[in-house]
Specification:
This protein is about 40% helix and about 15% strand. The chain is α/β, with parallel strands linked by helices. It has an 8-stranded mixed sheet with strand order 5-6-4-7-3-8-9-10, sandwiched between helices. The protein has a two-stranded parallel ribbon with strand order 1-2.
């Protein structure tokens, strides 16, 4: 029943995972949605007859001869459309990962290739971008975006309307959660659809996420995996993930620990860029930090694509952030160059392929009876 509150992407996805086609019954209410986008196999009116149900079952289901021999699931997934690249930025608490995300979005936002269609999305559980941007409005933001994708697929104009322009830095901003506890209201499949909606709307997305990617496989708790779904979804689908750490023994150790956690969560080491924020300016100290990070990762066989981490020296940015002006280019440019270098390597390593396109029955038209076909 599409009028039920529980009818959404997650319910449909759970049915499909059990090889069960979903037949939606509309009894006069409920939201409008695209059946193919949501994964619904068919729709019936509320006053359907037995013959109507039998016809739908004959098209979308297979008869079961024995209860212990279920038919294989049908692949109803549509071919993927073009999606904008996404760069995720994360780090242990207090390392300045949110500031690094601002710097990355600013550097890419002024790039003419993206036509000023760059988005900084605050997907962190403890969202700070509203504070850094002195946002007067509390919404719309991430919560409204995910809610809009529970059943429907909002158009690009609707998605862009939930973001705010940051003209001095050349990007748009999606506000994050108003409170950390509100992650419980975000359904995982709706989150995935919302992230896809952002990537269909903008030319490039920079996602500021929490540096916590533990899932059920690592800790045994499905609740923890749902809590961390924003970070896991962003880092797994990101073209490049920037991992931000602090200088010193503890900072480099925490940076290596987060890199190992990301790899365990399914993020390829070839897509990672390490950044040491507020680091030393002396070349010797930088080289020592790079050696320490390489040694900590060598025991697990992780090798980053760049020869060493990107170093961002200490700078006084509070006044710049408070006034909403652009961050210094000396901080922005090295970060952008490193991320784009890894993105180019990723693109070169991926094999070129053409995905099959699903053709809807009747969409190609038909031959008329008086048309004579010759040899091909």
């Amino acid at each position: 029943d599409v009028g039920l509150r529980s009818f959404d992407r997650d319910l449909v996805d759970a049915c499909i995972a059990c090889a069960t086609p979903v037949i939606a019954v509309r009894s006069g209410g409920g939201p409008t949605f695209s059946a193919s986008d949501l994964g619904v196999s068919a729709e019936l009116a509320g006053e359907f007859r037995p013959d109507d149900l039998t016809e739908v079952l004959a098209v979308h289901c297979r008869p079961v001869g024995r209860g212990d021999r279920l038919p294989p699931a049908l692949d109803e997934s549509s071919s993927p459309r073009w999606l904008a690249p996404m760069y995720a930025v994360c780090g242990p608490g207090g390392t300045g990962a949110s500031t690094v995300a601002i710097a990355l979005a600013q550097g890419l936002g002024h790039d003419a290739r993206y036509g000023r269609r760059v988005l900084l999305a605050d997907l962190a559980r403890r969202a700070d971008q509203a504070m850094f941007h002195d946002a007067i409005d509390l919404g719309p933001g991430l919560q409204e975006l995910v809610e809009a994708h529970r059943v429907q697929r909002p158009g690009p104009e609707d998605v862009a309307g939930m973001t705010f322009d940051v003209p001095r830095r050349g990007y748009r901003l999606l506000l994050g959660l108003r409170q950390p506890e509100l992650w419980a209201a975000l359904r995982p499949r709706a989150v995935d659809a919302a992230v896809t909606g952002l990537r269909r709307t903008f030319q490039l997305v920079v996602a500021d996420v929490t540096g916590d990617v533990e899932g059920e496989a690592e800790g045994g708790s499905p609740d923890v995996e749902e809590r961390n779904h924003l970070a896991r979804a962003a880092t797994r689908n990101a073209t490049v993930t920037v991992v931000v750490g602090a200088p010193g023994m503890k900072g480099v150790h925490s940076l290596a620990s987060l890199i190992r956690a990301l790899v365990r969560a399914g993020v390829s080491a070839d897509r990672l860029v390490a950044v040491i924020n507020r680091g030393p300016r002396h070349p010797g100290a930088r080289a020592e930090a790079a050696r320490a990070l390489a040694e900590l990762l060598s025991g697990t066989g992780i090798e980053l694509p760049l020869s060493g981490p990107v170093h961002s020296p200490e700078r006084k940015l509070e006044e710049t952030l408070r006034e909403g002006t652009a961050l210094p280019l000396a901080m922005v440019d090295p970060l952008v160059r490193a991320v784009e270098a890894v993105a180019e390597r990723v693109a070169d390593a991926e094999p070129a392929h053409v995905a099959a396109v699903r053709i809807a029955p009747g969409s190609l038209g038909s031959w008329s009876a008086d048309v004579e076909t010759g040899p091909s």
